TrEMBL record:
Record: residues binding substrate: R51, G52, A53, R89, Q199, N250, K251
GO MF annotations, alphabetized: S-methyl-5-thioribose-1-phosphate isomerase activity
InterPro entries linked to this entry: IF-2B-related, IF-M1Pi, IF_2B-like_C, Initiation_fac_2B_a/b/d, M1Pi_N, NagB/RpiA_transferase-like
Classification lineage: Bacteria, Pseudomonadati, Planctomycetota, Planctomycetia, Pirellulales
Described purpose of this protein according to its UniProt entry: Catalyzes the interconversion of methylthioribose-1-phosphate (MTR-1-P) into methylthioribulose-1-phosphate (MTRu-1-P).
Gene3D superfamilies: translation initiation factor eif-2b, domain 1, Translation initiation factor eif-2b, domain 2
Coiled-coil portions: none
Protein's UniProt keywords contain Amino-acid biosynthesis: yes
Protein name (record): Methylthioribose-1-phosphate isomerase
Family affiliation: Belongs to the EIF-2B alpha/beta/delta subunits family. MtnA subfamily.
Record key words, sorted: Amino-acid biosynthesis, Isomerase, Methionine biosynthesis
Gene: mtnA
GO BP field: L-methionine salvage from methylthioadenosine
Annotated catalytic residues: D240 (proton donor)
Catalytic activity: 5-(methylsulfanyl)-alpha-D-ribose 1-phosphate = 5-(methylsulfanyl)-D-ribulose 1-phosphate
């Protein structure tokens, strides 16, 4: 992706605005959505215009900057913006981590309302964005090193989207794939479609094809067959929150992939920045799981596929126990869970 199709970017100075690549429109339409108010940023996060834990964090940081008026920031408005944006989605801890950083700028002992605070807020949001780019590159290097001894054409399975569309840089779960490609290893990627919103089909496959990486789309229910056929040597997924013991919350279906990986002796790696690790939660049982609208299952993309009135359970995430995770890859290195 280039500058015109970046996942997110800030346009202008302190009185500028946030531009988001509308991921609800991919892969058919490449459309940017401008966010000029805090409320518009909240709505974009809630509606999945921007998604992926790191990207949500960066978008929220820029969203706080939308509280700046006429080149000046008011401490009260900033704190209220942080509080409001925190209500958009409950599971991705990067959201709260980024908002905490923005709030600390506003509540610093030397901070006062005015132009200086406005500049400091935008500088902090840009720093969060820049740091994410650097973390993505580091995660890519560490992840690629883990499978460097596998032959050219290594088979890698993914679930959901953890590429550039989910971050401010080159991705988390897909960053090792991109790094392997840069090293000439020519990875072959098996892309789970990822029901019910098809982030794998719509987003991951699109990203990989944009970069010329060999990829094959499969239904989620085909993963076991592909593993048993010997086509997968490693699995890379992202995470929205990791508990202190190494349990990891990721898009619904990841837990099932992990169980299948253990059954077939395939290593599953969770790739996420350290900002995704929540040391306040002892285990994954404490991670709040977002439940989304029933219509995402019964009327996905505008066409009804289930009887009217049927009860629906639609959790957006599940938790993979640490015992099923081979390693957690962060920008600081590779760690064994627990």
């Amino acid at each position: 992706m280039n500058e015109t199709t970046a996942t997110l970017r800030w346009e202008g100075g302190v009185d500028g605005h946030l531009m988001l690549l509308d991921q609800t429109r991919l892969p058919l339409d490449v459309v940017e959505v401008p966010c000029r108010t805090v409320e518009e940023a909240w709505d974009a996060i809630k509606r999945l215009v921007v998604r992926g834990a790191p990207a949500i964090g960066v978008a929220a940081a820029y969203g706080v900057c939308l509280s700046i008026k006429n080149g000046e920031a008011a401490v009260y408005d900033v704190v209220e913006a942080c509080r409001y944006l925190a209500t958009s989605r409950p599971t991705a801890v990067n959201l709260f981590w980024a908002l905490s950083r923005m709030r600390r700028v506003a509540e610093a002992p030397t901070a006062t309302s005015g132009p200086a605070l406005a500049e400091a807020l935008l500088a902090e949001a840009r720093a969060i964005h820049d740091e994410d780019r650097e973390m993505c590159a580091a995660m890519g290097r560490h992840g690629a090193d883990l499978v460097a001894d596998l032959p050219e054409g290594v088979g890698i399975l993914t679930h959901c989207n953890a590429g550039a569309l989910a971050t401010g840089g080159d991705g988390s779960g897909l960053s090792p794939v991109f790094e392997l490609a840069r090293r000439g290893k020519r990875p072959r990627v098996w892309v789970d479609e990822t029901r019910p919103l098809l982030q794998g089909a719509r987003l991951t496959a699109w990203e990989l094809m944009q970069r010329g990486i060999d990829c094959t789309l499969i239904c989620d229910s085909m993963a076991a067959h592909v593993m048993r056929a010997g086509k997968v040597q490693a699995i890379f997924v992202g995470a929205d929150r990791i508990a202190a013991n190494g349990d990891a919350a990721n898009k619904i279906g990841t837990y099932g992939v992990a169980v299948l990986a253990e059954a077939h002796g395939i290593p599953l790696y969770v790739v996420a920045p350290t900002s995704t690790i929540d040391m306040t939660l002892a285990t994954g049982a404490e991670i709040p799981i977002e439940e989304r609208a029933a219509e995402e299952v019964t009327e996905g993309f505008g066409r009804r596929t289930a009887p009217a009135g049927v009860r629906v359970y639609n959790p957006a995430f599940d938790v993979t126990p640490y015992r099923l995770i081979k390693a957690i890859i962060t920008e600081r290195g590779v760690f064994k869970p627990k």
